[in-house]
């Protein structure tokens, strides 16, 4: 597999971040920054994205580095909305979307790297253009779209004002 010490650290933190996101999606229907799972996702994703900038199989700046920078931007804006716009219900739509989109984007290099390395000696994919990677990313993209629609509808229901009077 040939991972450096930084690569091993990056992978461990990245797997923890993915676990935090998945726990959040299962428990809360979103990555919830108020909960420990959301905090694990947020901080783990920042660390993973920063460490990814020091990793390169091909030398120099590459698309993986661009993904990392974009993911840092997405989670940072989501955190800003979470912390500074706490009482703005409309900000939750953007926060939910940005966190989910950052999760989807983080899965692109994760799938590429995992499928071209695992199982050892006989990886699932020969390179990043292998059809199994494309098909897997398509399924993940469709899940991201479905999840985003679900989160939007759920947030809309949460944001809906409740009636303060009873009809006779």
Order of helices and strands: HHHHH
Largest sheet: none
Q: Ends: how far apart?
A: 71 Å
Extended strand count = 0
State the share of residues found in helices, binned by percent: over 70%
**Number of helical stretches of at least 4 residues:** 5
Q: Roughly what is the average pLDDT, rounded to an integer? A: 92
Q: Which structural class fits the helix and strand makeup? A: mainly alpha
Strand content: under 5%
Inertia-based shape: globular
Instruction: Indicate the radius of gyration in whole angstroms.
Output: 18 Å
Reconstruct the topology from this structure.
Blueprint lengths: L4 H24 L7 H17 L10 H22 L4 H27 L15 H29 L9
Helix pairs in contact: 1-2, 2-3, 3-4, 4-5
Quick take:
The protein is mainly α.
What does this structure look like?
There is one protein chain. The longest helix is centred in the C-terminal third of the chain and has 29 residues, at 131-159. The mean pLDDT is 92. By secondary structure, the protein is mostly helical. Helix 1 runs antiparallel to helix 2, helix 2 runs antiparallel to helix 3 (63-84) and helix 4 packs antiparallel against helix 5 (131-159). It is globular and about 55 Å long. It is 71% helix and 0% strand. The protein starts with a helix and ends in a 9-residue tail after the last helix.
């Amino acid at each position: 597999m040939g991972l450096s010490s930084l690569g091993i650290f990056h992978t461990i933190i990245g797997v923890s971040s993915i676990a935090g996101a998945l726990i959040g999606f299962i428990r809360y229907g979103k990555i919830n920054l108020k909960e420990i799972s959301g905090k694990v996702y947020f901080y783990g994703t920042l660390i993973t994205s920063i460490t990814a900038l020091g990793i390169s199989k091909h030398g120099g700046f590459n698309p993986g580095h661009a993904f990392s920078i974009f993911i840092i931007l997405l989670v940072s804006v989501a955190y800003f909305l979470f912390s500074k716009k706490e009482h703005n219900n409309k900000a939750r739509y953007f926060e939910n979307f940005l966190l989910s989109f950052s999760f989807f984007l983080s899965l692109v290099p994760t799938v590429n790297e995992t499928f071209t390395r695992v199982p050892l000696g006989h990886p699932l994919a020969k390179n990043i253009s292998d059809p199994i990677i494309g098909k897997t990313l398509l399924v993940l993209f469709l899940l991201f779209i479905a999840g985003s629609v679900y989160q939007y509808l759920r947030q809309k229901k949460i944001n809906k004002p409740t009636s303060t009077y009873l009809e006779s």
